[in-house]
Amino acid sequence: MTAYLLKGVSVVGGSPTDLIIRDGVISSDRSGALEEIDAAGLVALPGLVDLHTHLREPGREDAETVETGSRAAALGGYTAVCAMANTSPVADTAGVVEQVWRLGREAGLVDVQPIGAVTVGLAGKQLAELGAMATSAANVRIFSDDGFCVADPRLMRRALEYVKAFDGIIAQHAEEPRLTEGAQMHEGEVSTRLGLTGWPAVAEEAIIARDVLLAEHVGSRLHVCHVSTAGSVEVLRQAKARGVLVTAEVTPHHLLLTDELAASYDPVFKVNPPLRTAGDVAALREALVEGVIDVVATDHAPHAVEDKECEWAYARPGMLGLETALSIVLSVLGDRWDLIADRMSRTPARIARLAGHGTDLAVGSPANLTLVDPSARRVVDPAELASRSRNTPYSGTTLPGRIVATFLRGEPTVLDGKAVK
Fold it and tell me: Per residue in 122-155, pLDDT tens?
């Protein structure tokens, strides 16, 4: 294994120093041959961790595979991603989650941690094999029907009770389906002007309010996916003040984009939950800094061309996120490196129980890290993305920051901004 000397790097925004990578860990041993990387002006962060990635395999390999999604993740500075269960077949058995886990190991670009489905077939009728997935080789700890809400409160309570036995967590897609039937975008002034059926904020907020009460009653861990409204932030703030075991995520696109973009009728801006108002965006940013929202998660949702380049009403919701996430967060938070490291690495690794990830870059720690050039600017070109899909909302946009290198347990997956394999 090659040993590396990162010369003059700023560790999480600190003063320039040298960082040595040897035998898969951060080391102080300068003996022997060291491959030197001029890291002057670069910032070293713990490898990013994504709690919410759609890799599409098995079933929709035309949109993404575990390998292509892993490469996109590495190029985005990630060393671990949690793969959502809405594949085909659904990841609701030990066999399917183990398949995804093994595909991730074979790709070897990031650690792929499968998320298991809460219910069989994501149908919301019967609990899936939660225990079997938890004791499988994939060691599943997060369960979600993402894309669908576990709308039945009795089933949600049972799921929360069940996962307590192995310190699991239920990640809820908060959407009351009876309030969003036929919805095409956020319900508000823009939807009225465009004549599109609206998706009210209360459809999200009502489920979060219900679920924090259930989690409080059961004493179990709840995670709320892709929070998108100011009202949801207030529900979470109150729940955390009471000591409820709830965490929450926000996507990069909900920190930046608003429902005004729907006026273009470009389906690249159609997403679930929908883009909200500027007021919601401001509340989400404040909540992220405050810690009411714990992490940034990409909700990377690749789609084949025919699923996006069509009429708005028929387009699939979702956006690419892995290769642009850090740049979006930089544009929102600026160079608050410790905060970025916490919201994009330390805390998501802790929530997902991913040992060896999200650790400070100290001697003896696993060398899972990324090098960022904060002074760089790049124009997003969909044709240059590693993802198999092209549905990025940032096409032609100039974004700050560039991932120069990513290391997974001391082995480079990205060097000089290019994937190693």
Answer: 999 999 999 999 999 999 999 999 999 999 999 9
- 43-46/4-11 β-pairing: parallel
Residues of the chain short of pLDDT 70, as ranges, are: none
Q: How far apart are CA 62 and CA 64, in angstroms?
A: 6
Cβ neighbours, 10 Å, residue 396: 9
- 294 flagged as catalytic: no
pLDDT the model gives residue 252: 98
Give the active site residue among 92, 211, 299, 373: 299
Q: Which residue has the tokens 């909540």?
A: 287
Query: For the chain, percent helix, then strand, then coil, each to nearest 5?
Result: 35, 25, 40
Phi first, then psi: give them for residue 399, nearest 5 degrees: -120, 150
Q: What is the value of pTM for the model shown?
A: 0.97
Q: Characterize the bridge pairing of strands 411-415 and 4-11.
A: unpaired
Strand partners, 58: none
Eight-class DSSP state of 157 = H
The amino acid that residue 235 corresponds to is: V
Beta strands in 96-243 (DSSP E): 111-114, 142-143, 169-172, 185-186, 198-199, 221-224
Q: Which two tokens stand for residue 133?
A: 């997935």
Instruction: Copy the structure tokens of residue 188.
Output: 């508000």
Residues of CATH 2.30.40.10 domain(s) within the chain?
4-43+364-419
Tell me the C-alpha distance between 143 and 164, whole Å. 12
CA dist., res. 173 & res. 51, Å (int): 13
Question: In sequence order, what are the beta bridge partners of 399?
Answer: 378
Two tokens, residue 221: 């861990």
Residue limits of CATH 3.20.20.140 in the chain:
47-352
CATH superfamily, with its number, for domain 4-43+364-419: Urease, subunit C, domain 1 (2.30.40.10)
Angle at 285 between CA 180 and CA 369, to 5 degrees: 110
* CATH code for residues 47-352: 3.20.20.140
C-alpha closest to that of 184 among 28, 340, 24, 313: 313
- Owner of token pair 């790097």: 9
Strand runs labelled E in 57-126? 78-83, 111-114
Quick check: bond before 273 cis, omega within 30? yes
